[in-house]
Amino acid sequence: MSYTVNHWINGAPRVSNTGRSGNIFDPATGEKIGKVPYADKNEVNEAVIAASNAWPEWARTPPARRARVIFKFKELLESNINELAKLVTREHGKVLSDAVGSVTRGLEVVEFACGIPNLLKGEFTEEVGTGIDSFSTRQPLGVVAGITPFNFPAMVPMWMFPIAIGCGNTFILKPSEKDPSAANFVAELMKEAGCPDGVFNVIHGDKVAVDSLIQHPSIAAISFVGSTPIAQYIYTEGTAAGKRVQALGGAKNHAVIMPDADLEMVTDSLVGAAYGSAGERCMAVSVAVAVGDKVGDALIDSLKPKIQNIKVGPGTDPDSEMGPLITKEHLQKVHDYVDSGIDAGAKLVVDGRDLSLQGYENGYYFGPSLFDNVTTEMRIYKEEIFGPVLSVVRADDYETAVRMVNEHEFGNGTAIFTRDGDAAREFANNVNIGMVGVNVPIPVPVAYHSFGGWKRSMFGDHHMHGSEGVRFFTKLKTITSRWPTGIRSGIDLSFPMMS
Ligand code: NAD
C-alpha cells in the first residue's frame, strides 16, 4: 500500500506541485507507506485566500446555525470513530484502544463547541447612565491557524478548530508531517457536515509552511502545540508579526509519592501514565519522586514486575498494550537518553533497549525502561525524553520533593499520591504547575475546563479549549448606546461620567 496525501483547500483536495515532500512510515513495521507534500508560500497563500474569502459570510452566519454544522460533525465523528482511530494507529503506531480513547477526548471538545451560541452570549447592563445601556459581545478574529504535533494527530486539532470555527473564524490546520492523514479525514467529515468551502482547510508541510503561516498578514491568530523550542519560536515570531498566539510546549511531569499512599494504586497508575502511548504524551508521568527511601524501595519492587509484563507489539494487535515509537530517529534518541542515564550513574532497573519483535524487526519498538537513583543534574531528569522511560528520584521529605517539581523548567502536569488531605491541598494550592492531579496520574482537564501548562510548557495567555478557548478565538467588543429620548442637546467637553 502506498498513498499520497493532498492539501485540503476550499472544500476539496488540492494536489501539491511544489515538488517537495516527505515519506510517511508505518512505525510498526518501518515500511514506507505514503507521501506527504510540503507546501510552499504560494500554496499556503492559496489556503489563506480561500479562508479569507469564506470568512465574512461565516462570521455573519448565526451562531446557532454554525453550531448545527458542528453538531452534525459530532454525529459523523461518532459513526466514524473506529476508522479515524485506525488511521491514527497506522501512522502514529499507538495501540488502537488508545487511539480510540484519544479521538474520544477530541470528540468531547466538539460536544463542548456545540454549545457555542450559549458560550458567545455577552453581558448587558441597563442604565449605565441615564438613558444609556451598555453591552459586550465576543466577535471572531478572522482567519486563524492551528499547527499541531505528531502525538495526537486527531485530538489536538480538535482542541482548536471546533471552537475556532464555532466562534465564526475560518481555520487552516497544519498537522504534523509524520502522521498527516487524520487531518484530511476530519476535513472530509466537516464538509459532509455542511461546513462551507474555505471555512476549514488543511495545508501539509514542514518549516516552510509554518513560517509562511506565521508571516502571512491575513492570519489573525495561531494556536500551536508541539515541543518547547518550536513553541517559543512560534510565539516570538507570531507575536512580532502582530498575531495572537497560544503555544503549548513540552513537559517533564512529576508524580510525588507520599509515604501514606496506596502503593498498589500508585504503581498501577504510574505504569499507565508512564508507558501508555509509549510515553509519547505531553501529560505522561516521566519522573516519580519517592518521599523517603522506604517508599523508593517499595516503589521499585512493585513497579519492576508490572513493567516487565507490559506487552509491546504493533498497535493493530488487540493484545498489544504499548506500540512502537514514531520514527527511527526518535527510537535512536530514546536509546541515547537511556545510555546517558547509565553513564551519569543512574541505576537501570528495567532495560528496554534491545527489544526485538519477531516479524517486526524493522519496527521502531523500545521496551519500557525504569531508572532508579536518578538525580536532578542528569540529562534524563532535565530533558523531555518522550519515550517509555520512567525515572525514580528519591527525596528525603515532602519539601524537597515539591522543590524539585517547582524548580524544573517545565510546568505542564503533576500529581501527588497520598491519603492525607492536608498534604494534597497544600500541594495543589502551591505547586508551580498548570495541571495538578490528586491521586489522578494524568490530570487532563475535560473539554469544558481548559488545558495548558505553566513555565516553559506554554507561551501565551490562554489555555486550550473550555472558556479559555472561546476567549482565545474571539475579541471583546463593548457597546454603549443611547436613544434620542435620553439625549440632552448641548456641547460638553468634560470626561463622560454617570450623572
Ligand atoms: P514538534 O515541535 O517537532 O512539531 C510540532 C509542529 O511544529 C509540527 O506541525 C511540525 O511540522 C512543526 N515544526 C517542527 N519543527 C519546526 C521548525 N523548525 N519550524 C517551524 N515549525 C516546525 O513536536 P512533535 O515532535 O511533533 O510533538 C512532540 C512534542 O509536542 C513534545 O515535546 C510534546 O511534549 C509536545 N506536546 C505538547 C502538548 C501540550 O499540550 N503541551 C501536547 C502534545 C504534544
Kindly state the percentage of residues in helix. Answer: 25-40%
What's the CATH H-level homologous superfamily of the largest domain? Aldehyde Dehydrogenase, Chain A, domain 1
Mean pLDDT: 97
Rg, nearest Å: 25 Å
CATH architecture of the largest domain: 3-Layer(aba) Sandwich
Strand order of the largest sheet: 15-16-17-14-13-19-20
Q: Uncertain spans, ≥5 residues at pLDDT below 50?
A: none
CATH topology of the largest domain: Aldehyde Dehydrogenase, Chain A, domain 1
Helix count, DSSP H or I runs of 4 or more residues: 16
Strand content: 15-25%
Structural class: alpha/beta
List key phrases describing it.
499 residues; alpha/beta; Aldehyde Dehydrogenase, Chain A, domain 1; Aldehyde Dehydrogenase, Chain A, domain 2; 2 domains; six-stranded mixed β-sheet; 16 helices; 39% helix; 23% strand; binds nicotinamide-adenine-dinucleotide
Write a concise synopsis of the structure shown.
With 499 residues, this protein is α/β, with parallel strands linked by helices.
Verbal overview:
- The structure is a single chain.
- With 499 residues, the protein is of the alpha/beta class.
- The protein has two domains: 3-249 and 457-479, 3-Layer(aba) Sandwich (Aldehyde Dehydrogenase, Chain A, domain 1); 253-438, Aldehyde Dehydrogenase, Chain A, domain 2 (3-Layer(aba) Sandwich), CATH 3.40.309.
- 39% of the residues lie in helices and 23% in strands.
- It has 16 helices and 23 strands.
- The protein has helices at residues 41-60, 63-79, 81-92, 96-113, 116-119, 155-166, 181-192, 207-215, 228-240, 263-275, 293-308, 328-343, 379-382, 398-407, 421-430, 466-472; strands spanning 3-4, 7-9, 12-14, 21-26, 31-37, 123-129, 132-140, 143-147, 170-174, 200-202, 219-225, 244-248, 253-257, 285-291, 347-350, 369-372, 389-395, 410-411, 413-417, 435-438, 454-455, 458-459, 474-482.
- A seven-stranded mixed sheet has the order 15-16-17-14-13-19-20, with helices on both faces. Strands 10-9-8-11-12-22 form a six-stranded mixed sheet, sandwiched between helices. A three-stranded mixed sheet has the order 1-5-4, with helices on one face.
- Helix 9 links the parallel strand 11 (219-225) and strand 12 (244-248).
- Helix 2 packs across helix 7 (181-192) and helix 3 packs antiparallel against helix 7 (181-192).
- The longest helix has 20 residues, at 41-60.
- The chain is globular, with a radius of gyration of 25 Å.
- The mean pLDDT is 97.
- Nicotinamide-adenine-dinucleotide is lined by residues 147-152, 156, 174, 176-177, 206-207, 210, 225-227, 230, 248-251, 282, 384, 386, 412, 453, 457.
